[in-house]
Specification:
- With 342 residues, this protein is α+β, with helices and mostly antiparallel strands.
- It has a single domain, classed as Endonuclease/exonuclease/phosphatase (Deoxyribonuclease I, Chain A).
- Helices cover 24% and strands 33% of the residues.
- The protein has a seven-stranded mixed β-sheet.
- A hairpin with a 2-residue loop joins β5 and β6.
- The termini are close together.
Length: 342
């Protein structure tokens, strides 16, 4: 039986340290003062518990081997989440990879959580690539992980600029730049490590798989043969595998998911998994199982309303005690995929 790696990505929805956290820079303290008013240590710990309750159920209740995340404020919140997970999953020893370099207006970053019993990061190959926009930046975190058998996986955790209520207008240019940034570093990785390198790029792209930022700028396609034949860097977009997926909501009713995020009743497939040619062919000792790509939607996460949106925890918005949902999790569903050792 082949050894497998379970990889997932989740937007953790505003995972901030408690109000007045001593490690928060002064500029960020000013920017978040109103939103984080009443965001106590107890509420922060409760949110961590809600997130951990989902993460520990992934991979048949074994937890992920590698988890990419976004909307995390700093190393402190990731370390706290790792500690909680390690207490719940005895077979895991989770550690973070985080670069505190984002200049996003709210200071949120991308990061990884990995099981150090199964993967080791190459500390010389951890990078933060800025996605520049006028009102700040978001980062793409790149890290090379090495399996126990010596196979390399280059992973990139993405969080592209938001739509800000503007799906196809001025904000689309920001995501085009993000797509070009990802495409550029995909090419550079191939130049250094060869064309058959195993590259996994996942994240919250704030666009759908068919939008130009993905198809043209990041060069991500649903056509396997296009990726196999391409001489330049192309991605196979596994999000097309879960364009529609059955689920069960909190009341036990069967639902059909058509997105990882819902806005005004409409589903959007913003959370996607992109893989390189090397992962499709298994030329780099790792091979993706395309049919394994899925949305992770456990019943307690799924609203029993007119649309099967995820049950969100929410942002305090000035009065945490009133404005957060203690029974919620995030406004995004996680997505996952299985990689197999050849």
């Amino acid at each position: 039986m082949h050894e497998r790696l379970y990889a997932a990505f989740w937007n953790l929805e505003n995972l901030f340290a408690p109000a007045n956290h001593p490690g928060r820079p002064a500029w960020l303290q000013r920017a978040t003062r109103q939103d984080l008013r009443g965001w106590t240590s107890a509420l922060f710990q409760h949110k961590l518990g809600q997130l951990a309750s989902v993460i520990e159920r992934m991979n048949d209740a074994g937890g992920p081997d590698l988890l990419g995340v976004c909307e995390v404020e700093n190393a402190f919140v990731i370390e706290q989440l790792c500690a909680l997970l390690n207490g719940r999953l005895a077979q895991r020893t989770y550690r973070p990879v985080h670069v505190d370099s984002s200049r996003d207006l709210r200071g949120i970053d991308t990061a990884f959580i990995y099981d150090s019993r199964r993967l080791s990061p190459n500390r010389d190959e951890i990078f933060s690539h800025w996605v520049i926009r006028r009102t700040g930046t978001r980062d793409i975190t790149q890290a090379t992980f090495v399996t126990r058998r010596g196979a390399e996986l280059v992973a990139l955790a993405n969080h592209w600029p938001s739509r800000s209520g503007d799906a196809l207008g001025s904000s689309s240019g920001f995501r085009a730049v993000a797509g070009e940034t990802l495409g550029y570093w995909h090419e550079r990785i191939r130049e250094v490590k060869g064309n058959e390198v195993a590259v996994l790029a996942f994240g919250d792209f704030n666009d759908n798989p068919f939008d130009r930022s993905l198809t043209e700028h990041a060069r991500a396609t649903r056509e396997i043969q296009d990726v196999a034949r391409a001489r330049s860097a192309r991605f196979f977009n596994l999000a097309w595998q879960y364009l529609s997926q059955p689920a069960v909501d909190r009341k036990g009713k069967s639902r059909e998911l058509n997105g990882t995020l819902y806005y005004r009743g409409d589903g959007y497939l913003f959370d996607q998994i992109l893989v390189s040619r090397g992962l499709m062919k298994g030329g780099a000792a790792l091979r993706v199982l395309p049919d394994s790509a899925r949305i992770e939607a456990f019943p307690e996460m799924v609203l029993s309303s007119s649309n099967p949106a995820p049950v969100r925890f929410g942002l305090p918005k000035g009065d945490a005690a009133k404005n957060v949902n203690r029974n919620g999790f995030s406004d995004h569903y996680p997505v996952s995929v299985i990689l197999e050792m050849s």
